[in-house]
Amino acid sequence: MPHIQVTPSLQLDEAEIDLSFIRSSGPGGQNVNKVATAVQLRFDARRSPSLPNAVAVRLIKLAGKRATTEGVIVMTANSHRTQEANRKDAIARLVELVREATVVQAKRVKTKVSKGEKKQRLESKIKRSTAKKRRQVGRGDWD
After folding, report:
1. Strands, E assignment, the chain
2. For residue range 61-100, what is the model confidence (pLDDT) as tens digits?
3. Span 3-102: which CATH code?
4. Which residues does residue 73 pair with via DSSP β-bridges, in sequence order?
């Protein structure tokens, strides 16, 4: 079976990708109701033997609304006029999504505000407050 190279260490088996051709929406001239040029790609990320479990979980999360509750990723490509171009586009988009899922995001480390920064912030607030209070001279001294 042919494989699709995603990263140097990861490849997808083409047999795992299910492609079906459907009619494309929008204008298309005389062929609009006769030729099925749009491609619907289905890839079962949850049950894929090619993907490590951690990558599959990240892939489903990255796919968002393109992923079903069963973990199947569904993509539709209809930006080109030919089946072949749309097929290549759909596969390229899937490969790019899988490539993004292979990157592990670094955990965010919480940091504390330093004492110096707190002190500086409070001093600037006091300074601003006194400047505003000086402008209020004569307030309430009406006869």
Report:
1. 3-7, 10-13, 17-22, 38-44, 72-77
2. 999 999 999 989 999 988 888 889 999 999 999 999 999 9
3. 3.30.160.20
4. 43, 67
Domain residue spans in the chain?
3-102
Which residue, among 66, 35, 57, 55, has the nearest Cα to 102 in the 3D structure? 55
Please classify residue 110 by burial: count the beta carbons closer than 10 Å to its beta carbon, then call 0-12 exposed, 13-18 middle and 19+ buried: exposed
Grouping H, G, I as helix, E, B as strand and the rest as coil, residue 67 is strand
The string of pLDDT tens digits covering residues 104-143 is 888 999 999 999 999 999 999 999 999 998 888 666 555 5
Euclidean distance between CA atoms 4 and 48, whole angstroms = 14
Residue 81 half-sphere exposure, CB side, CA atoms within 13 Å? 6
